[in-house]
Amino acid sequence: MDHRLLSFVKVVQEQSFSRAAAALHITQPAVTQHIQSLEAEFDASLLERGKRSVNATKAGKIVFHEAVLILEHYHEMKRLVDEVLGGDTGSIVVSASYTFGEYILPYVLRQFQQSYPKISFVVNIVNSDEVVRQVRNHEADIGIIETDLAGSENLTVVPFARDEVIVIAASNNNFYAGMAPLAEELATQTWLLREEGSGTRRVAEKALKDLGISPVHILELGSIQIIKESVEAGLGISALSHWTVRKELSLNTLKQVNPQGFSLGRSFSYIHLTAEWQTKTIKLFAGCLTEIVSSF
Q1: Angle between helices 58-85 and 280-293 in degrees, nearest 10
Q2: Mean pLDDT of all residues belonging to the chain
C-alpha cells in the first residue's frame, strides 16, 4: 500500500495534519513528509494550509477522489487473497431473489453459520434483475435468481434446484364447478402478480401463456407475502412457487387450483462473476446451498 495516499486521504478527511497523524498512529512529521512527497511527484500543490483547517486544492480534490478508490481496491484485493489462502474465515455478500431469499435462504444461512462460524455474511433480498446487476457491479459475491441467464457474458450460472409453480386460490373460493377449474374459468378471475423485473412475475406470465388465457383483471402487488394475504382475503388468484405456500396449504387457508394437465416448473440458479480463481467463501456457500436445498 502507498502510505502517502493513506496519509493524504486522512488529512483531507480530518482537515488537520495532527488529527490525521493521531488517527494513523504515526508522527505528524511523517504525515508532512508523505504529503510533500506526493506534491513533489505531481509537481502540484495538493493542500491549502489555513490557520484552522487544511483543505484540498483543485488538483488535490482529483488526487483525493482517485486515492480513495485505490485504497478501496487495495483492501478488496487483500480480502480476496486472504480468502483464497486462508482457512474458513472471511465474509460474503449474498443477493437473492424474493422467493428464494424469503422462504429458503434462512435455512441455508442457519446451516452455513453453524458450519462456518468465522465467516460473516450480508444478505440483500431484491428481484432477479437487481440480483444480476449487483453481482455484475461487484456489490454481491454470489446471487440466487429464478430466471434464465443462459449465455450471459462474464457470469457463471449454475442451476441447483427445481421448483413447482402452482395456481392458488382462497380455500373458500368456489368459482369453479368441477373437480378442477377450466382455463376459461381462471380467465374470469382477478390475477395478482408481482412487479415487472421479478422472476415470480415472469413465471406467472409463463403460466398464463401455457394456459392460453388473458385475464380480464390484473392487480400488481409488491411482494409475495401481500399476494398470499390478498389471495386468502378473496381478492383474486395467483401462480406462485410451491415453496412459498407450503405453510398456507398445510393450514388450509389456500388451495391449489391447477387446471387438469397443467404443470410448470422452473430452475433456481446461483451466479457469480466468471474468473480464473474463485474465493473459498463462494465455494463453501455454494456447497452449503446445494446440500440444504436437496433436502426440501
Answers
A1: 60
A2: 87
